[in-house]
Amino acid sequence: MPLETKLTKLLGIRVPVVQGGMQWVGVPQLAAAVSNAGGLGILTALTQPSPDALRKAIRETRQLTKNNFGVNITLLPSINPPDYEGYARAAVEEGVRIFETAGNNPGPLIKFFKSNGCIVIHKCTTVRHAKSAERLGVDCLSIDGFECAGHPGEEDIGGIVLLARAAEELKVPYVASGGFADGRGLASALALGACGVNMGTRFMCTVESPIHQNIKEKIVASTERDTVHIFRTLHNTARVFKNAVSQQVVALERRPGGAKFEDVRDLVSGQRGREVYTRGDPDYGIWTAGIVMGLIKDIPTCEELLRRIEREAEEVIGGMAALVVPAKAKL
């Protein structure tokens, strides 16, 4: 029997799993594969060089799947900000009605999407930020624990406590993000009050993922100990793969007097990170990965992965239910 949660009903999907909106990874072939497999595929808007390019990506995705998919727009600190409004308008005009937002000051974007009848999932790393987004009218929240790839925030709260606190405080449904790769993880997230999970690193390591095969195999060969935090001293912490470049960044941050962004700019170049995925050299630049690598042992299709997660979650939930037994009658 399929799992039915507030997320599956809200998004019109079969499996309560959302693909994270990953830079350079959330492209039509992956988003469509996830949606075809029963989850929610996500296109990453800023992977596309312009709003018009996003339009083309949306149309391409529609040719690959008849199921629902969404678009991620992440608000990043930048000297020259991208045309967020243009990306948002293009996606809405192309008929997209599910959006994942992340980053600071999402209010104007959320207002625009809600005024156009869209569903908004906002990603947060703290309960207080989640409550703020709740007041802005989001339909669902994505709660990112310290285990996640990318930016886990600055408060270092692990998923178990963070998700349980979310259950205490939030009124709208939320999905769990950070550290999820299998059915056991999905079942645990549901037990903690979430209505599904968001997975990034796990979807990087699938057949339909657009990254180089060498990087997928590197993820399989890695463990939960193979990530590192950079930008801690710059108060913009990011969890990335532990390689020669990221360890050099950490060394610069730890030297007396610390480091300014200018000192590491060339090392952390987004272009170098993108070329990791195209060249297949895991040491070429900075690339994000979560500690969930320790749970990733293969490179399945998205269909195989979600079927397996669905089956495992059902088995775990059934096994947990069997732990509740009638009390013995008193003599």
From TrEMBL:
Keywords: Flavoprotein, FMN, Oxidoreductase
SUPFAM superfamilies: Inosine monophosphate dehydrogenase (IMPDH)
InterPro entries the record matches: Aldolase_TIM (IPR013785), NMO (IPR004136)
Gene3D superfamilies: Aldolase class I (3.20.20.70)
Pfam families linked to this entry: NMO (PF03060)
Keyword Flavoprotein among record annotations: yes
Transmembrane residue ranges: none
GO molecular function, one term: nitronate monooxygenase activity
PANTHER family in alphabetical order: 2-NITROPROPANE DIOXYGENASE, 2-NITROPROPANE DIOXYGENASE-LIKE PROTEIN
Protein name (Swiss-Prot/TrEMBL): Inosine monophosphate dehydrogenase
